[in-house]
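Input (structure):
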């Protein structure tokens, strides 16, 4: 081979290597006969929501249970953030808290109001600001909200009355320790109870507004015990009231805590149900918090779905005979589920 021909071949080989090195990177990186992969688009971030929760107070164990149920339900939805406020049993504080939530620009408000009438105006202001409102547990005197969720207090009171009739054999003298009388549940639990004992010879010889608080119920029961030697049973509008009455009877020192029958409402596992197991209460009725249902309903509203105006929750009767088996469920009647809020006679609080 001549020198000239050898140089020519080396030149061609060098040129081929240079051309091979100039291929586009994406072409060089793909195998023969494959199509280049398209760039991956960034995932669209999920929409997030802020829900304001105004709790009237956290003095009652049942209300702590409600907040816990809301928190637990919300944790299953990463797009939801719940901001909690405690009004500490002050109507004025709760009114201010609702307005603070409106100003902060929340997406939805959940409120468990202290009183029926004074919270109407702040809730209306939230609705006017296009913020949906779920009223939880205690109803308002006017349905100026998106949805109400709560136990059927008339039904629960009626079931308590029917059980009282059974417990006392249709006759007896009883004490009624009421919840806050400026709240709808107190009126409903009384009215339902009166329906339940109708036609019997059961007589209410003493009643008192105890504001749902155990210490006030204990004081009221002490007064009732001092006034009468004949008390067959106590109907407490919540378990703390029924337990406070039992404590008063025990402290009296006459052993009447063993002869008087005590019925409460709430059914917390570590409170009402425990009292039944310990023989303190003859019965308690579970009052569901609605916390899980509130979050589920809130998400439907925020996603543009229609929801019922009222969602009524059932109850469970716990007695010494069934408490270890989980109690006896009692479903809401269809008529009760659509009932309008009860009228509450009260002085209007600060607006």
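Output (sequence):
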């Amino acid at each position: 081979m001549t020198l000239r021909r050898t140089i020519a071949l080396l030149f061609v080989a060098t040129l081929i290597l240079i051309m091979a090195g100039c291929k586009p990177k994406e072409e060089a990186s793909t195998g023969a006969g494959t199509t280049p992969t398209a760039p991956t688009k960034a995932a669209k971030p999920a929409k997030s929501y802020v829900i304001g929760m105004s709790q009237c107070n956290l003095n009652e164990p049942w209300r702590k249970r409600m907040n816990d149920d809301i928190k637990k339900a919300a944790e299953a939805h990463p797009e939801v953030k719940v901001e909690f406020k405690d009004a500490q049993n002050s109507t004025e504080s709760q009114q201010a808290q609702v307005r603070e939530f409106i100003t902060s620009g929340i997406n939805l408000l959940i409120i468990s109001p202290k009183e029926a009438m004074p919270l109407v105006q702040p809730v209306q202001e939230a609705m006017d600001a296009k913020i949906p409102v779920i009223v939880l547990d205690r109803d308002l005197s006017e349905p100026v909200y998106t949805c109400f969720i709560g136990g059927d207090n008339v039904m629960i009171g009626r079931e308590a009355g029917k059980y009282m009739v059974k417990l006392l054999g249709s006759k007896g003298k009883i004490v009624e320790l009421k919840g806050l009388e400026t709240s709808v549940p107190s009126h409903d639990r009384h009215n339902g109870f009166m329906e339940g004992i109708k036609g019997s010879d059961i007589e209410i010889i003493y009643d008192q507004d105890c504001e749902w608080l155990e210490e006030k119920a204990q004081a009221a029961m002490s007064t009732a015990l001092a006034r009468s030697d004949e008390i067959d049973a106590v109907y407490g509008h919540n378990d703390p009231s029924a337990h406070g009455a039992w404590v008063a009877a025990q402290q009296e020192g006459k052993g009447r805590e063993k002869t008087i029958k005590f019925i409460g409402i709430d059914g917390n596992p570590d409170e009402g149900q425990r009292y039944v197991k310990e023989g303190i209460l003859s019965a308690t009725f579970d009052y569901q918090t609605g916390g899980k249902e509130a979050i589920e309903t809130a998400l439907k509203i925020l996603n543009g779905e229609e929801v019922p105006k009222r969602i009524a929750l059932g109850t469970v009767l716990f007695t010494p005979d069934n408490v270890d088996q989980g109690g006896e469920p009692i479903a809401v009647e269809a008529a009760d589920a659509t009932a309008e809020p009860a009228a509450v006679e009260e002085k209007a609080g600060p607006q």
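Notes: Residues 208 and 288 are 25 Å apart (CA to CA). Residues 15-20, 22-45, 334-339, 341-351 have pLDDT under 50 and may be disordered.
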